[in-house]
Each structure stands twice: as structure tokens, then as C-alpha cells.
Write a structure and sequence with these properties.
With 361 residues, the protein is of the alpha/beta class. It is built from 12 helices and 14 strands. A 9-stranded mixed β-sheet has the order 10-9-8-7-11-6-12-14-13, sandwiched between helices. A 5-stranded mixed β-sheet has the order 2-1-3-4-5, covered by helices on one side. The chain starts with 7 loop residues before the first strand and ends with a strand.
Length: 361
């Protein structure tokens, strides 16, 4: 689906759904056209009906023609929109075209939440269930929304720790901390994101694959933050380039011959400046965004997580807490830097998963 958003639509007349659809694949029908096509298959006349959409209809030509044209041609009476499109090519253009054609347009906006609180959302002041719908519509498209606003990927930190806040034993060993169900969920997340990032320390210690190992899952780009370009040429990452690409983020201190060797092996590289690790995070995100990466799952290494936290570049955290003690008084997960946002907890097997959203786009 990436870089496209998740969008659904339903056509309603007299309180009854007469057509529904969603954007199923990149290049396929957009949700509005899919819903209109579904109504036609049912033999329903949509003239004068209302369509509810999770994202404002587009008015530009892309892989598909403008949705606003389809809605006008269908002679709909009303369009209700749950969230605005923040991209410059779309923002406000579709709704304006619909209004010019005499169609009533209504935005559902939760006044105290997200985009509305920033003053950038269209009109509306929904509360209760309508506000929940508007919030849900925005949250399911956070990568699309951040990328549309900044050109950078949404960053989600994933980590697992023991009850005493450790990700490894005092001796440095890294046993499985989270349970089997939690690890399976992580593979689902990998298949949903554009890229996974780890630090070179994790690669040197574990030689991971970082692929999504669930059936026919889409494979993410595997990103290694490696300031001196130490990624071994015989690593599993480079040995499996036919399964998923690898991008190495390195600093100016990297040996040019090492960088050339990585390129010759088939990896991509991004050179970033900055004295401290935290100073290099934002340039790396900009570089990844230029490569079309809209979502980044930050997986490996407390050092890398700490750099992202210090740079203020973590949008969401997903932390598994396992029912075990590894020993050692000092936590090595940068939890203190991630404070200040409410979290939601759920049980995953024997573990507790805490999700915290620090920014909404």
C-alpha cells in the first residue's frame, strides 16, 4: 500500500449502506470509486446519496483519475470526510471542487485533537463517536500524514525488556526476552512498515536477517546505522539482498574503501554529518524519506534508541515487558527520554505490550 494511505468509503441512502469499498492495492481503484462500483453492482442509484470517506477525496491525476470527478459525475448530494489530506498536491482541492459542483461537504474534526488542535484542519467540531471516528481515521494513516507534512518517515520504537528494565544480561548476553506471540506480532509489524533500523552493534552481535517471516509478507528495507561502515560483507543482511534491500547510514569518518565495498556488494548508503549520534538522526530520516520510506520500525540497540530519543525523533513506542528479571540496577532502555505521553497496555501471550504515541501527525 505504501506510499498511499489507507482509505475506506461507504455510500448511504436513507440510513442504509448501498455501496462500500476501500483502496486495496497500489494502483488499484481508490475507495470512493470502489464504493461507487459496488453500488452499481448492487443495482443501486447513487444520485442524491451521501458518501462517507476516511480521507478527503483527491482532485489530482495519479495512478488513478481524480476521485472528486467520480463523485461529481455520480451526482451525490453530500460527502462526509473523517480526515484531511495534508499533502500539498491534495490538501483542500478535492473538497473545493465538490463544493463548486454544488455538493455539500462536511469534515468530521475532533476540535481538541491532533490536526485540529494545531489549527490546520478544516471546519468542524465533532465530539463523542464522531470525534473517535475522526481520530481513528488520522491514526491509521500516521506514516502517510507525517511523510506528507515533512517528507520524513514515521518512527516507531520497538523494544523488549525485563521487569527490571534490561534488554540484556549484565554479562551482555541477549536472550529471547519477549514470548513467541510477541515475536510473531513483531513480524506482522515488519511486514507493515517500509523499513527496519538497527545499530551496527546489534548486527555484529547477532548477525540478524531482519526480514518479515510470515507467509507472503512484504519485505521492508533493512537499515543499519553504522558510522564507520563496519557492516561485514559476509553478513546475513548482504547475503539476502535478493529478499530485501539494505541501506547503510554512515558518517564522514567511514573509510571510503569500506563504503565502496558495501556499494559493490549491493547495499545502498546514506552519508550523514553531525558530531554526536543524535545529530545524525534527522539527516538520516531526511535521506530515507527521499528514498520513499514513509515508516521506520526502530528495532535494534539501546544506543540507537537513545540517539533517536535524544534527537526527539520517536513518534511512537511499542515496548514489550516480559515477566522475568535479568539483573542489574540501571535500565538500558531510554525510558526516561520517552516520558510525557499516555500509554495503552495490552496482553500479548505472557508479555505486556505498552504502546505510547508521542506525536500525532
Amino acid at each position: 500500500m505504501s506510499p498511499n494511505p489507507l482509505v475506506g468509503a461507504v455510500v448511504v441512502r436513507d440510513g442504509e449502506i448501498i455501496g462500500e469499498g476501500f483502496h486495496a492495492e497500489l494502483g488499484g481503484l481508490h475507495a470512493e470509486r470502489a464504493a461507487l462500483a459496488d453500488a452499481a453492482r448492487r443495482g443501486e442509484d447513487v444520485a442524491g446519496a451521501t458518501i462517507y470517506v476516511t480521507l478527503e477525496p483527491c482532485a489530482h491525476q495519479g495512478r488513478q483519475p481524480p476521485c472528486s470527478d467520480a463523485l461529481i459525475e455520480a451526482d451525490l448530494a453530500r460527502v462526509v470526510i473523517a480526515s484531511e489530506d495534508p499533502t500539498s498536491k491534495a490538501a483542500g482541492k478535492g473538497p473545493a471542487q465538490l463544493r463548486d459542483a454544488g455538493i455539500e461537504v462536511e469534515f468530521i474534526v475532533a476540535a481538541a485533537e491532533g490536526a485540529a488542535a494545531r489549527g490546520s484542519a478544516p471546519e468542524g467540531n465533532a465530539t463523542g463517536p464522531a470525534a473517535e471516528v475522526a481520530l481513528a481515521a488520522r491514526l491509521m494513516n500516521q506514516p502517510f500524514r507525517k511523510y506528507g507534512r515533512t517528507g520524513e518517515p514515521l518512527v516507531v520504537l520497538k523494544t523488549a525488556m525485563s521487569l527490571d528494565g534490561r534488554t540484556a544480561t549484565p554479562e551482555g548476553a541477549s536472550p529471547w526476552i519477549s514470548g513467541e506471540e510477541s515475536r510473531r506480532l513483531v513480524h506482522v509489524w515488519r511486514g507493515e512498515c517500509d523499513a527496519i533500523a538497527v545499530g551496527i552493534g546489534t548486527v555484529l552481535a547477532d548477525d540478524p536477517l531482519l526480514t518479515a517471516r510470515l507467509g507472503e509478507a512484504r519485505q521492508p528495507v533493512r537499515v543499519v546505522f553504522d558510522s564507520t561502515a563496519r557492516l561485514p560483507l559476509d553478513s546475513q543482511l548482504l547475503a539476502t539482498l535478493d529478499e530485501a534491500p539494505v541501506t547503510v547510514v554512515h558518517g564522514p569518518e567511514a573509510d571510503p574503501h569500506r563504503v565502496e565495498a558495501l556499494l559493490a556488494a549491493g547495499a545502498e548508503t546514506i552519508a550523514v554529518g553531525g558530531e554526536e549520534p543524535a545529530d545524525r538522526v534527522r539527516p538520516a530520516l531526511v535521506g530515507l524519506g527521499r528514498r520513499g520510506i514513509t515508516s521506520l520500525l526502530l528495532e535494534g540497540g539501546a544506543t540507537l534508541a537513545g540517539a533517536f530519543a535524544a534527537a526527539g525523533q520517536i513518534d511512537e513506542a511499542r515496548i514489550f515487558v516480559a515477566p522475568m528479571l535479568l539483573g542489574g540496577p540501571v535500565p538500558d532502555v531510554p525510558v526516561a527520554a520517552l516520558q510525557g505521553a499516555p500509554g495503552e497496555a495490552e496482553t500479548v501471550g505472557e508479555d505486556t505490550l505498552i504502546r505510547t504515541r508521542f506525536k500525532e501527525w
